[in-house]
Specification:
Glycosyltransferase; elongated
Length: 680
């Protein structure tokens, strides 16, 4: 055979081999195709043809329907049908890896064939994921929302974890996805990711007060375990919990809450693993499962049940009638063989856990820069988002501060927007949070009553910053609740004694500032405080000195709940009362409790203050028990002759009782007698 014919044969064989290779790829499942590691295939004509299908199946809202084998050829009629469905939102979901798989495929083909349509479709998919997220951080199974169990926060089949893994790669700016969003979108993905992790922490199930794992679905408002299909009853999940924990372990510089969640879940996985049992499967002539049986086998690797009782972790099973059974053999053929009742996925968690713990231990002992590490000086700590300080998170700094210290702990916070809930616990006394500048050192979060939704006291769980440690100081900060006009939403909650807040901006709407604690005393100096309804409320004795109180709507500035035993409640000295243009009818205050006490001295009131000044909140008893008064105020809003008859205008002699020393002096301790005079 001459060389010419040899060459022809070689070319023909390569051509046939290429066809066979492409056929083998297209014979795979859609999921397998999206996960292909062969980059060369994504440069092929076949991949480009599949990409055209992916673009056709995507809806204008950005999402894709589920269970579509995108690689299958489409007829002209089918293509026309898909074009007609572009504006429809029905069926768009992240269930069964929909949308996430298509985005992965688009990223891989864009790297080899940089068609701008692929990039646009990928970014539209990302926008869909961001829009679909609930305010509480979770995701429903379908978006726009589909009635029924589909609205629950969905961990089932790793739906929410798949989304968070995408957001993590984008916020961390890795090269996993070839398509790079704008900095603005990256910032949005970081916020969405953090909210998602917060939701995971909040939904971890407590069994008799002990953290365990997660359920396949959680109610989108109460976070409680929820039912899906008839045979998917509320239960602890051995399968879905595994991927959740692996995600948590992938987070750099994990918070104390994340570490606690992982530790608790691993203890639970060890507790509920099933040993000595093997799943045997019989296959029919088509290679499909025809029967499943559980067989005793002392050498079998560990298994975990898909569904376990919430009270005692007992595995259970259910047919389409929704009746619990405690043996797989009691389930009919269709559900017994057509559903995954056991899993081995937690073995990956247990395998990775020891390595993760060692890594954490090493980081804790290493030179402190970020994360859960010891600061260079535990009494002088620096927080900076660029990593130049001891920590990048305010809460991490507080977690690593000494408890009940002998001297003041100064936490300096560099400029930046810190999207986190901050808690100063009761044992973290003598803490000072000192911002670089009040305009540019911003702590923000967006919890509100309806989002928390844990009963009538949900308001008190909404603060962006919650202070429980005595002798706390906040200086040069902006503290915001950004949830908007959605009801009760606290920006700053102070439930501590001898607290100084100086040169700070406190922003919100209803219930912006909560100052509480019977007998507790607090001092706000040179602050700007804004809100709508009752935006300063609580039971503490508080002096507001040279502050601006800005009303955003027609409502009430204060709602004191002063205890009967307290001589003073809210005292405003040398303050300015201002308002938005739309706020024209604002009361100085109303009594949350009937013994409320609120006094304004030497304050300037704009014309938004109602002439009657005060409201009794439909409590006739409050007109006798409360004490509302003014002294030497000014401005068009100060109309003493028109005030309600049960309020007071102080005499000069009476006003002499309202000095910082008389109101705030701590007679219980000689060491703290002038606690309000030092702003460092």
């Amino acid at each position: 055979m001459n060389n010419f014919f040899k060459g022809i044969i070689t070319l023909f064989c390569c051509f046939v081999a290429g066809i066979n290779t492409q056929a083998q790829v297209l014979d795979k499942s859609w999921k397998s195709i999206t996960e292909l590691k062969d980059e060369n295939w994504f440069a092929s004509k076949e991949a480009k043809a599949v990409a055209e299908n992916v673009l056709l199946y995507q809806r204008n809202i950005g999402g894709w329907p589920k269970n579509i084998q995108m690689q299958k050829p489409l007829s002209d009629a089918q293509k026309q049908e898909l074009l007609a469905l572009k504006t429809s939102t029905e069926g768009c979901t992240t269930d069964n890896s929909a949308t996430c798989q298509e985005m992965l495929f688009l990223s891989k083909i864009y790297k080899q064939q940089p068609d701008e349509r692929y990039k646009k479709a990928f970014l539209s998919g990302l926008d869909y994921l961001l829009k679909a997220q609930y305010d509480n951080g979770g995701w429903p199974q379908f978006y726009p929302l589909k009635k029924g169990y589909y609205t629950h926060i969905t961990y089932n089949d790793d739906s929410m974890v798949n989304i968070l893994n995408i957001l993590k790669e984008i916020k961390d700016k890795t090269d996993y996805y070839s398509i790079k969003p704008s900095e603005e979108i990256v910032a949005k993905t970081k916020i969405a990711f953090d909210k998602g992790i917060d939701c995971i922490i909040k939904t971890q199930y407590k069994q008799n007060g002990v953290l365990t794992a997660w359920c396949a679905q959680h109610d989108e408002t109460t976070f409680l375990p929820a039912k899906a299909r008839a045979y998917e009853l509320p239960s602890l999940s051995g399968k879905e919990s595994a991927k959740i924990v692996l995600l948590l372990m992938s987070i750099e510089n994990p918070s104390k809450e994340i570490i606690t969640a992982v530790d608790a879940a691993v203890v639970w996985f060890e507790k509920v693993k099933i040993e000595g049992l093997r799943e045997d499967r019989s296959l029919n002539e088509k290679g499909k499962i025809s029967d499943k049986k559980m067989v005793a086998d002392v050498n079998a690797p560990a298994l975990w049940a898909r569904f376990m009782e919430l009270e005692d972790n007992k595995p259970f099973f259910s047919d389409r009638d929704g009746v619990k059974k405690y043996s797989l053999s009691e389930i009919g053929d269709e559900r017994r063989n057509g559903y995954s009742w056991y899993t081995n996925e937690p073995k990956e968690v247990l395998k990775a856990y020891e390595k993760w713990k060692k890594k954490l231990s090493t980081e804790l002992k290493s030179t402190p820069k970020t994360g859960m590490k010891a600061p260079k000086d535990e009494y002088n700590i620096v927080v900076a988002q660029d990593g130049s300080g001891d920590y990048t998170s305010i809460q991490e700094a507080i977690y690593n501060s000494p408890s009940f210290p002998y001297k003041r702990v100064l936490i300096t916070i560099k400029n930046g927007v810190y999207h986190e809930k901050v808690l100063i616990p009761e044992w973290n006394t003598k803490v000072s949070l000192i911002g670089e500048s009040k305009e540019n050192t911003i702590i923000t979060f967006d919890d509100y009553y309806g989002k928390i939704n844990l009963g009538r006291n949900s308001t008190f769980l909404t603060p962006t910053v919650l202070v429980e440690g005595n002798d706390f100081k906040a200086i040069n900060l902006t503290i915001k609740n950004t949830s908007g006009p959605v009801g009760q939403a606290i920006a700053l909650s102070v439930v501590a004694d001898r607290v100084v807040v100086s040169n700070c901006i406190i922003l919100g709407n209803q219930d912006t500032l909560y100052t509480s604690g019977e007998g507790f005393k607090q001092y706000f100096k040179d602050c700007f405080i804004e809100g709508t309804v009752d935006f300063i409320f609580g039971s503490a004795t508080v002096v507001f000195d040279n502050c601006t109180l800005h009303s955003k709507s027609n409502a009430y500035v204060t709602a004191a709940s002063t205890p009967e035993s307290s001589k003073y409640g809210f005292v405003f000295m040398n303050c300015k009362l201002t308002a938005d243009e739309k706020a024209t009818e604002v009361y100085l205050g109303r009594p949350w409790r009937i013994n409320a006490k609120t006094v304004y001295l030497n304050c300037e009131m704009d014309n938004h203050i109602r002439k009657e000044g005060w409201n009794n909140w439909s409590k006739a008893d409050a007109e006798k028990a409360s004490f509302y008064a003014e002294y030497n105020c000014s401005g068009p809003g100060f109309q003493p002759a028109n005030r309600v008859a049960w309020s007071h205008q102080l005499t000069k002699t009476e006003a002499k009782d309202y000095t910082l020393q008389q109101i705030l002096e701590d007679s219980k301790s000689k060491l703290n007698i002038n606690w309000y005079s030092n702003f460092k």
